[in-house]
Amino acid sequence: MTTLASQADAAHALMMLLAEHGDMPQPEFELYDYDTDTGAPDWGVSLVVRDLALFEQWRAALDLAPDDIAYRACHHGACLVAIGEHGGVPVELFAVADVPGK
After folding, report:
1. What is the mean pLDDT of each run of 10 residues along the chain (102 residues)?
2. How crowded is residue 66: how many other Cβ atoms within 10 Å of its Cβ?
3. Which of 11, 26, 31, 100 is 20 to 30 A distant from 41 in Cα terms?
């Protein structure tokens, strides 16, 4: 069973992001359960912005490498994704854009 306490590291990383980048534009955020090699549940932080300029601003603030940006289809649009770590916790940064006609 997953407990609230199992999310403590991810919650702490999110609080660190809030403290360190409180003047940044607000992303949507959530704590997410990601797969590990051991099969044990672990938690990370997901940040979502809906503007490419904000994605770049957050990417730079999180010190995520430009070469690590990937494109993927998601929901009813397109996403740019950059994955890194903050406070020892995985952080996923997404830019979501609508695709016309979808």
Report:
1. 85 96 95 73 89 94 93 81 92 82 55
2. 9
3. 26
Judge contact between 46 and 32, C-beta under 8 A: yes
Give the integer Cα–Cα distance in Å for 28 and 34: 18
Task: Give the list of residues 6+ apart from residue 75 with CB closer than 8 angstroms, or none.
Answer: 96
Residue 75 DSSP SS3: coil
Which pLDDT belongs to residue 102? Answer: 52
Contact 95, 58 (CB under 8 A): no
**Distance, CA of 17 to CA of 25 (rounded, Å):** 12
Strands 42-49 and 89-98: parallel
Residue that has been written with the tokens 């950059």 in this structure: 82
Helix ranges (DSSP H) in 1-86: 8-20, 52-61
